[in-house]
Write a structure and sequence with these properties.
It is a single chain. Helix 32 (about 875-895) links the parallel strand 26 (about 840-845) and strand 27. By secondary structure, this protein is of the alpha/beta class. It contains 37 helices and 34 strands. Helix 3 packs across helix 27 and helix 35 packs across helix 37 (about 1025-1040). It has a 7-stranded parallel sheet with strand order 24-23-22-25-26-27-32, sandwiched between helices. The protein is globular. The relative contact order is 0.09. It starts with a helix and ends with a helix.
Length: about 1050
């Protein structure tokens, strides 16, 4: 059973099918007995793969088998709806991949021999997943003998033993993985890179030109002066239809009626809390009273007076240790508080520890080892030596176990309590979720008076009466809505906010809604635009979490070529630019005529001569100009000393002059590097594009959308059966996110898990917060590792998102040396890992690299206007340096990199004390404190909601290896800081006032992204407007403050 427990503990790293199952009777009974249009002649089929039908019974048997195995491995008896959905999705994807790929394997003759499989399971080339299962966590060594002994016992066990089912599944997974690796290798070899190709690529990089150029931007001509006819638009459309391919999607407009508590609900909750005051005051054990009476468990931490955010409460409790403060309203809850305990405690301590990890969750054994080490230390053994040889926490072990100075809420509660209540130099053994710690406090600050606060709280929630009233308001609205016209009219009359969403067939959420699956499904079930969406019960009101929603379908986009009327606007813009290019080419050709130098042409045209050096045929962009492939090509072929003909570029029309051309000697190393780079590009084509092509041509048909709808009716609107599936490219990725417990990282973790990936979350919790990832902890494919990325980390992963770095001034200026080290050493460490395991790695850079920009908006080619020695430079320059390191690793070691530059982002999980403008304003407004504006408030920012950013990040990671970025991800809608403050005040109904303070050093006066590159390369742009995002963010802060 010990190994089964190990499997359970590490299941997130091993099990390739997620979890869950629907009831067979629901599907089979409904499918086989109904006269529905769903199945027509294939009434017993769930879909087709490569023209062959897949029966519902076969599918459900497969789901059932996977479910039983996963329940056994995770020691659970039942599965929630989300887990069931994931299981069905992954089972379907698995069946698609198996059937299509087996057809390929049979045709080519790919198989895995018994000896080869044994070697991958139990031999020297053991699969990484199994390596982790049979590795001793304290020694790091693989127990081959133990693994073989375990497998012998499992294979001889009866068929109903969970371990046997698990092992047989692992054999299949490893075998399939080996077949796929062979297939990829064969395809890659077919994409052979010749020596001549490598030689040519190296020569293209070796031939470099220093150029001067001028550019006449298209923006110098007003669009309104250019005429484009409908005939021209149609002709362009007919010639370029392939450029207008689109995925299947639906567009809806909708309004929300937020289900929020009424004034009466507030009064009733306040009264209920007030009724507890007398009993609370007389309680002999206030913390136990809290645990029995409050909606939240007691906080056992101790606080100084100035650490308590509520000044009035702090003053009251420090002067009235037996009295009850309140009721008072805080974070949408009524509370009463009193002192539970008073102690003299240090603010911080310095300690060292030795961590013994439990093997197979055997904490008793870990404690016995820790007790033995503690006895040795009490007898005079050397702590540093024991830490170096025994501690599993290698970050501190290298320093003799030293953890440095830390405050009481830095560590997990049992460890923190033991450290802060200990006497100096005492040796103690402490158990936490990480194992058994041998702890010694080596120094401590001077003790001060601190109190432990017992707080009873009850959240103010909408009563049934309030909910019914809000529903009636929604019903009054809905009853007059039958199409888009009267929907729009009713929105205008009622003053509600109309929202727009473009949704995919497989989406489960819409920004700002907890669960929108039913509404999305009905949008796809609807047959005509202008149709008001209805639930399975025929109601036009959807309940999406804490909202009632009424929606109208406005657009149906089928997969394929977009219709002309949808893309006519885009085509018109293209043709306008082409006509502008013709005019500008004539203008520059005229200026060139009779001019002897580029400078004289520039003076005639009113332009500035710019320089760009070392431009090769393989260059990605022109410094100061951006991504201009035609200009780069012209630089490679234009004769030195001659001015080129006008060149039609992306930003405008160019003339270039090649001042100097140098050709490096092409060495064998350069040719070898070029060949390796081309081969890596081909590996991407083999590993990804080839599989995409197989799946695209796989004749995959599913009818699951309708099945899901029918079963929704049978279960009263709760989806317990088959979902609409994701894109049938089922290749689960193992993804490392550094800074995963932070604001952005926590959202990224959730999104990647929702997409069926396995996520390793790495964080040292300096600014990250476990609360952000708490809802994910029980997910079988989520693993949390406490680690500082300034130290090396080793893991087998497919992708890395490097987000680790404090990002707000209040945090990154706390320890500027550590901040810049995090950016620089963190970049080096993740790049080293990416280079070792040959995976893609993304650097989350920042708009701060542009400094206080003199170009507006800021495009990726702009080098910025920065202060390298200011108080913000530890962050700004650290990020710039990280970009440099990423690019050098890419150039020198061919690491597959991505760089994004993140502009101001906001949303739930922001730290309330991070000092950023959005969180500052919201916190101040909710607490009725003055909103502080630094400067005159006219400085501008562009604010993007976190969901938009996450979508862009994933799209960037999914681009080909040849595209590295950097790419701006931000919202081009610009607001002044004063406008933001006024919007927050209005949305919070706050009584706060706006006050102005001096502007901090190096604070930029304007910030707005040019997202042209993101639109063209990622097909991405923000979808959530500021007000909608602020409402969600305000609701989050109401919950936590």
């Amino acid at each position: 059973m010990a190994t089964l427990q190990t499997i359970r503990n590490r299941g997130g790293l091993l099990v390739s099918i997620v979890i869950g199952l629907a009831l067979i009777a629901f599907i089979v009974g409904d499918a086989l007995n109904s006269g529905s249009r769903i199945f027509n002649s294939q009434r017993n089929q769930i879909g087709e793969i490569a023209g062959e039908g897949v029966s519902i019974i076969d599918f459900q048997n497969r789901v059932s088998k996977n479910e039983e195995m996963i329940k056994a491995m995770n020691n659970v008896s039942s599965l929630n709806e989300e887990q069931q959905t994931m299981l069905r999705e992954n089972t379907w994807q698995q069946m698609i991949m198996e059937q299509l790929m087996q057809r390929e394997y049979d045709e080519i003759g790919i198989d895995v021999s018994g000896d080869e499989l044994y070697d991958a399971l139990l031999g020297e080339n053991m699969s990484p997943a199994l390596r982790q299962l049979f590795t001793n966590p304290n020694t790091g060594e693989i127990d081959y003998a133990g693994a073989r002994d375990y497998v012998k016992k499992v294979i001889s066990a009866p068929n109903n033993i969970p371990q046997k089912a698990y092992w047989l599944n692992m054999e299949k997974e490893v075998s399939d993985s080996r077949k796929m690796a062979k297939y990829n290798a064969i395809v890659a070899k077919a994409l052979y890179i010749t020596d001549a190709q490598a030689q040519e690529a190296a020569a293209n990089s070796a031939d470099k030109a220093d150029i001067s150029y001028i550019v006449k931007n298209y923006s110098t001509i007003e669009d309104s002066t250019i005429n484009v006819s409908n005939g021209e638009i149609k002709e362009y459309y007919n010639k370029h239809q392939k450029s207008f391919e689109q995925p299947e999607s639906r567009k809806i407009v909708y309004v929300n009626f937020d289900i929020e508590p009424s004034g009466e609900d507030f009064s009733e909750t306040e009264g209920a809390v007030n009724d507890l005051v007398k009993e609370f005051k007389e309680s002999a054990d206030p913390l136990e009273f809290v645990n029995l009476s409050s909606e939240k468990k007691a906080d056992r931490n101790y606080f100084k007076q100035d650490e308590i955010a509520n000044d009035s409460m702090a003053q009251f409790l420090f002067n009235n240790e037996k009295a009850v403060f309140g009721p008072y309203l805080e974070n949408n809850a009524y509370k009463i508080s009193r002192v539970a305990s008073v102690k003299m405690l240090p603010d911080s301590v310095r300690a060292r520890h030795i961590l013994i990890a439990p093997q197979n969750q055997d904490y008793a054994q870990a404690k016995n080892i820790a007790d033995s080490l503690a006895d040795l230390l009490r007898k005079g053994a050397d702590f540093e030596e024991l830490a170096k040889t025994n501690s599993i926490d290698q970050n501190s072990a290298v320093n003799g176990g030293d953890l440095g100075w830390f405050t009481s809420r830095t560590m997990v509660q049992p460890f923190s309590d033991s450290a802060f209540f200990a006497k100096k130099n005492d040796i103690k053994v402490v158990l936490t979720q990480y194992g058994a710690h041998v702890l010694q406090v080596t120094d401590m600050a001077k003790p001060v008076k601190k109190i432990q606060i017992a707080t009873v709280e009850k959240e103010v929630s909408p009563s049934a009466k309030t909910t019914n009233q809000i529903y009636n308001d929604a019903r009054t609205f809905a009853i007059e809505v039958s199409n888009l016209d009267n929907f729009n009219k009713k929105v205008e009359e009622s003053g509600l906010t109309k929202r727009i969403a473009t949704i995919g067939k497989n989406d489960k959420t819409i920004a700002g809604m907890e669960s929108a699956r039913e509404m999305i499904r009905q949008a796809y079930m609807a047959e005509e635009v202008d149709e008001v969406l209805k639930t399975n019960d025929g109601s036009t009101i959807f309940e999406n979490g804490n909202k009632f929603t009424i929606a109208v379908l406005t657009e149906i986009d089928e997969e394929g070529i977009a219709p002309l009327n949808k893309v006519a606007g885009n085509i018109k813009r293209i043709l306008i630019q082409k006509k502008k290019a013709d005019l500008l080419k004539k203008e520059l050709a005229s200026a060139k005529s009779g001019s002897e130098s580029l400078l004289s042409i520039a003076q005639k045209a009113g332009l500035e001569v710019k320089e760009a050096n070392e431009i090769s045929f393989n260059s990605f962009q022109i410094p100061g100009a951006g991504i201009e492939p035609k200009v780069i090509a012209a630089s490679s072929i234009t004769e030195q000393g001659k001015i080129s003909e006008p060149i039609e570029g992306n930003q405008g029309v160019y003339l270039i002059l090649v001042n100097n051309r140098t050709t490096e000697e092409v060495t064998p190393d350069m040719v070898a590097q070029s060949k390796q780079a081309l081969q890596q590009s081909n590996m991407y084509r083999a590993n990804y594009q080839a599989i995409q092509a197989i799946l695209k041509n796989g004749e995959i048909i599913d009818q699951i959308l309708l099945i899901e709808s029918i079963n929704m009716k049978k279960t009263g609107g709760v989806s317990t059966t088959l979902p609409v599936f994701f894109n049938p490219i089922f290749m689960k990725k193992r993804i490392l996110i550094t800074g995963g417990a932070g604001f952005i990282g926590s959202h990224l973790c959730k999104r990647l898990l929702d997409e069926g990936n396995e996520v390793l979350c790495l964080d040292n919790y300096f600014t990250g917060n476990k609360e952000n990832i708490l809802p994910l902890i029980q997910h079988p494919y989520f693993e949390v590792i406490r680690h500082d990325i300034m130290n090396s980390f080793y893991a087998e992963v497919d992708e890395i998102y490097n987000l680790a770095c404090p990002a707000s001034p209040i945090h990154y200026q706390y320890d500027p040396i550590r901040t810049i080290n995090t950016s620089v050493m963190g970049a080096i460490n993740v790049l080293g890992l990416a280079n070792r395991v040959k995976c893609k790695v993304m650097q989350a850079s920042t708009s701060e690299v542009y400094g206080d920009p003199q170009i507006h908006p800021q495009a990726e080619y702009y080098w910025g206007n920065v202060n390298p020695i200011g108080i913000r430079s530890c962050y700004d320059e650290g990020k710039r340096c990280a970009e440099t390191i990423f690019m050098d690793y890419h150039r020198q070691y061919k690491v597959k990199i991505k760089i994004i530059r993140i502009f101001n982002t906001y949303g739930p999980n922001m730290h309330p004390q991070d000092g950023r403008v959005v969180s500052n304003f919201i916190v101040q407004a909710l607490q009725d404190k003055d909103l502080t504006i630094y400067g005159n408030g006219r400085q501008t920012r562009s604010f993007q909601y976190v969901d938009d950013l996450i979508r862009g990040m994933i799209k960037m990671m999914d681009t080909g290896d040849d595209f590295t970025g950097p790419v701006n991800l931000g919202n081009p809608c610009e607001f002044t800081i004063l406008q933001l403050a006024e919007t927050v005040l209005r949305l919070t109904n706050s009584k706060s006032k706006i006050v102005f303070q001096p502007l901090p050093s190096d604070d930029p006066t304007q910030r707005k992204p040019d997202i042209t590159l993101a639109q063209s390369k990622l097909d991405w742009m923000p979808a959530i407007e500021l007000e909608g995002g602020l409402k969600e963010t305000i609701a989050y802060f109401k919950r936590i403050l």
